[in-house]
Amino acid sequence: MEREKFIRLVQAAFQEIPQKFKDLIANVAIIVEDRPSADLGFPVGNNHLLLGLYHGVPLKNRGAYYGNLPPDVIFIFQEPIEKLCPTPAAIKTKVKEVLLHELGHYFGLTEKELREIELKKGE
Questions:
Q1: What residues contact 29, with CB distance under 8 A and at least 6 apart?
Q2: Domain range 3-122, its CATH number among 2.60.40.420, 3.30.2010.20, 3.40.640.10, 3.40.50.150
Q3: Rounded distance, CA 120 to CA 86, Å?
Q4: pLDDT value for 95
Q5: Is the predicted pLDDT of residue 93 greater than 60, yes or no?
Q6: Residue 23, SS3 per DSSP
C-alpha cells in the first residue's frame, strides 16, 4: 500500500476515537515507519512481529514536574501490518487496533491489561 494511503488510515483511525479521549491526548506524535529498528531502542529480531510502539511517559505517571518535554511518540509499523493482513480492509482494521493499543499505553495501561481488554472485546 502506498505510504500516503496508509497514513490516511492512521489519521482516520485517530478520528474515530471518542472525543472524550481525544481531549485527553496532548503532546503525542504519531509516526508511521516502514518497520521497527534497533534505532528505536527496542530489540528487534526476526521472530518478533512488532506492529506499533509507544515511547513516552504514560499520562497516569505524569506529575506536576511534567512539562517542557518533547512529545511522546507512537510508532505504527506499516510493513509488519501489511504482512499480517491479506486485504486493505484487514489493514484498516489492524491499524485501528494497533493505534488503540498504543494509546492504551499512553493512558498508562500495561501490556497485560491491554491484552485482557482485547480478549474481552473479541468474545
A1: 71, 72, 73, 74
A2: 3.30.2010.20
A3: 24
A4: 98
A5: yes
A6: coil
